[in-house]
Design brief:
Layout: H1 21-29, H2 33-82, E1 85-91, E2 97-104, E3 111-119, E4 127-135, E5 153-154, E6 158-164, H3 169-182, E7 195-201, E8 204-209, H4 215-220, E9 224-226, E10 234-238, H5 242-249
Antiparallel strand pairs: 1-6, 2-3, 3-4, 4-5, 7-8, 8-10, 9-10
């Protein structure tokens, strides 16, 4: 009620006198403090010895693994040099492809080559990139599968990696265009030579070429526009839509 006062007593017992600490420990453990401290020190030394032994074993396994993998690394670096790749710092540009890593699988000693491709439109401030890997051998044409728009971004404008000096920007683009000619077409060439239907994966196909005049039709058919297709700029469809698309386009 208003106008009343209360006196509250809050009593906390949470400490004992210093001179009583050792007797309390001895009483609880039923043992002399010297024996207790010796046991604590022995346990500490045993733990540290175990940690040091395990670390030494891990280091030795890692040393043996690296020693066994060394010939494979040497062979891999000689291989990429024979293909024209040299480690250097290069400025990023739209379409540049670099070899960013070489690793050896410890169990099988297979060599993994990790490549990265950078893209950047005029309206973008940052470079986007996508990775791909090849095991043991590097093909003449590198394929990068885009699952939509790449979310990997970087503020960097240059990178230190393995790069082909004889592969300037224009030549890299030529390689990708050449890949389009190597793709097996799933249908005869349509009457409209500006439009092509090509197989893209086990579950999809692409419509490429001069698709701008029919973009609304392709969109209504359920296609997804993708400027990063390995077969060229175009529209990607599920194979379930193939008959419908071919009929609608008169192909």
């Amino acid at each position: 009620m208003a106008g009343q006062f209360f006196l509250v007593l809050d009593l906390n017992i949470g400490a004992i006198k210093n001179e009583n600490v050792v007797p309390l420990i001895q009483n609880v453990c039923n043992c002399e403090i010297g024996i207790i401290e010796a046991k604590i020190q022995a346990d500490k030394e045993a733990y540290e010895l175990k940690q040091a032994t395990e670390k030494a074993e891990r280091d030795e396994k890692e040393r043996i693994k690296q020693e066994n993998a060394k010939p494979y690394f040497e062979k891999a670096y000689a291989y990429i040099q024979s293909l024209g790749y040299e480690k250097q710092t290069v400025k990023l540009f739209d379409g540049i492809i670099v070899l960013v890593g070489v690793s050896v699988v410890s169990e099988s000693f297979d060599v993994i080559y990790k490549f990265r491709k950078y893209n950047k439109t005029k309206s973008e401030k940052k470079f986007r990139y996508i990775n791909t890997e090849y095991r043991n051998e590097i093909p003449n044409v590198l394929e990068f599968v885009y699952n939509g728009y790449s979310d990997n971004k970087t503020d960097k404008t240059e990178i230190t990696a393995y790069f082909k000096n004889n592969k300037p920007k224009d030549e890299i683009k030529t390689v990708e265009v050449k890949k389009e000619a190597e793709v097996k077409t799933t249908e005869p060439k349509p009457n409209n030579s500006d439009i092509r239907v090509v197989e893209y994966s086990e579950k999809s196909f692409a419509v490429i070429g001069n698709t701008k005049p029919i973009k609304d039709v392709l969109l209504q058919l359920g296609g997804k526009y993708n400027r990063y297709l390995t077969v060229g700029i175009g529209w990607i469809f599920s194979n379930k839509k193939k008959n419908e698309v071919m009929l609608k386009l008169g192909l």
